[in-house]
Amino acid sequence: MDKRGYLRRFLKNKPAAAGGGFILFIGLIILLTPLIAPYSYEEQCLEDQYQGPSPHHWMGTDSKGRDLITRVMYGGRISLAVGLAGTAVSLLIGVTYGSVAGFLGGKIDNTMMRIVDTLYGLPFMFLVILLMTVVGRSIYVLFIALGAVQWLTMARIVRGQIIMLKEREFVEAARALGASKPRIIIHHLIPNILGPVVVYATLTVPAVMLEEAFLSFLGLGVQPPASSWGSLAADGMTVISPVKTYWWLVVFPGATLATTLFSLNFLGDGLRDALEPHSNY
Predict the structure, then answer these.
(1) Are 73 and 30 in contact (CB under 8 A)?
(2) pLDDT 10s digits, 166-182
(3) What backbone phi and psi angles, to 5 degrees, belong to 67?
(4) Residue 61: phi, psi to the nearest 5?
(5) Nearest residue to 229 (alpha-carbon basis) of 78, 106, 89, 99
(6) Nearest of 35, 37, 43 to residue 69 by alpha carbon
């Protein structure tokens, strides 16, 4: 099927098309945030603290009188950066590991996949928390930690695809021409599995973002003065009480995060159906 066929198949999936449109919209807003944000990120006005949504502050203000819509816009940059960086780490590990296991086969493949099976049984969120506690709460450590727990499924997907492709004629031709194993993997096999890799990557981004939000509720996510959608919602939860509920501090960051996660999942499902309509992974 040509590229137009893929596009038609994707656009027929209305939730996927809507999700893709929303992601493009959010991406544009985040890209232009420094230019269109109504206030500066750290601008405070204690006289305006805990103000509800109004024409001056569309999403209200927080405990320091900072404009919430501005912080949500900047927080989206951090949330998406965590999702994309964590996904990149998981792709690097998973594609490399799965490609080597699938291409080499035999005892090496069996040993490598038994390691994957063993790792599946470990409480990875506990390992992320332990790593963040021991190494430090740097955002770069967060990128690596979240990416390092998402590569297992990618490794299995890539391994399965490599096993199906490694006996094809173009691989045999590369062998006959004297191509080395690394060259065959990098230049001949991996380019032919980019479809499944891209599809799974779109499903990994929301998983990483959700894990970061969970860590933020534990105080281990993005650290001040930076903030993500998860940390903004977590901050809002701390000021909820039976006496006064500042609902906008939780609803707006949480709704933005939830809508983005749904959109990414719809986008991933649509890409999967368009590129691999008969796949079951």
Answers:
(1) yes
(2) 888 888 888 888 888 88
(3) -70, 125
(4) -130, 165
(5) 78
(6) 37
Q: What percentage of the chain exceeds 90 in pLDDT?
A: 20
Classify burial at 77, counting beta carbons within 10 Å of its beta carbon; exposed 0-12, middle 13-18, buried 19 or more. Answer: middle
Q: Are 28 and 39 in contact (CB under 8 A)?
A: no
- The two tokens of residue 264 are 């990414």
Q: Which pair of tokens denotes residue 248?
A: 């906008």
pLDDT digits (tens, 9 = 90+) for 232-260: 888 888 887 766 778 889 899 999 999 99
Residues 6+ apart with CB under 8 A from 249: 60, 62, 68, 232, 233, 235, 236, 239
Domain extent listing, the chain: 70-275
- Residue with structure tokens 């707006």? 252
Give the domain 70-275 fold. Answer: MetI-like fold (1.10.3720)
Sequence-distant (6+) residues with CB within 8 A of 66 are 39, 41, 42, 43, 44, 45
The amino acid at residue 60 is G
